[in-house]
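Quick check before the chapter quiz. The format below is the same one you will see on the exam, so make sure you can read both the input and the output lines.
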Amino acid sequence: MNSVVVRTLFSLFVPGGLVVFTAAVIIYLGVLDKSLSALVHIYPYLVAVAGILLGWRFNRSRLIFAILVLALADRGLLLFSSAANNVGAASAALGQTVYNAIGFLLPLNLVFVSQVKERGILTLHGIVRLSLILLQVLTVFLICRYQEWGLAAFLDYSLPEDHLLSWLPLSLPSLLSFAVAFFFLTLGFIRHESAIENGFFWALLSVFLAFAVGKVGPVSTIYLATAGLVLVVSVIETSHSMAFRDELTGIPGRRALEEKLLQMSGIFTVAMLDIDFFKKFNDRHGHEVGDQVLRLVASKLNTVSGGGKPFRYGGEEFTIIFPGLNSKAAMAHLEKLRKRVEQTRFLVRGSNRSGKRLEKAKGISGFRKRAKVTISIGVAERNEKYTSPQQVLMAADKALYRAKKAGRNRTST
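Here is the expected output.
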């Protein structure tokens, strides 16, 4: 299977899918049946507290709003389902209306929260968003209070009995709401492929399972709390990614390199790479074009053979580590990489056009010109002279200097 497909599937199912799958298996097998009633009095509150603290500490207002929406939905469902069970038919109809209204609004709320930008909570934007969420509580009350408006009947519209999805307890408007939400969140993940997009997608699936069980109670609460847990985990994953992955190029950054070097032992080779004349290129074509060069070179580094692991060292410098390879073996793979970069042609928009941008060459227009990008590479291996990873890294850096001094666009040891 293509490595890109594997990475995409992995980023889709981990960590959100793993959390939801684990919760579903535990519930299905009845592992927690005996302690379920006790768990629902602890689990949702732990998730809520963790979400609020993380959201406040990392300035993730979307997490806090999502936790609030999930908590209001869970409390509303439990409150009205309890009233329906204790009072009678009229309250049962009221409980069904609340169930339908929340089932319709909750997926749309998750889509809304996933799309808004981080603008804080105690800010004008945050207060407006909080007001919109609380306004929906009033909306649900009005739908229940004024049945003559017809909104309750609309939300209770069911699928025909012979329909493929008629076994689901959700009304047709709720199903359509979930379908729209799944579409937009799937599209968001495809476009950005980030941990937070992953989190909202799997949170929505967990919410869907909460409604699909057909009965409000401990199980639905567990699924709704799990939706919150998925979002908490996604924020942790995002923070970890920001610390260890370079935001511009998408490859691991300096901190990840330092940790990798600490783990190295035995035979290994380190290569230091530098984009030739990058400063002149950056000054001539602009920083936006320079950023595109960095991204495109990083994408080439991701294709290096021999088990090489690329990192962004800083600026226009990159590092590749080859575990288990000596410098002679690594040189063959690095030469292929150097030639691949050299043979790649890019098109740069003319200076008379706004929004300069660099892209892979597919044709030439009157406003574009060819640009050639090359790299210089310094290589060093762990041996009797360079025994520590830091010594090997410094030796590779010196070899890089020799490659640049010798004329650039070459590999040196």
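If your answer matched, good. The chain has two domains: 3-244, 254-412.
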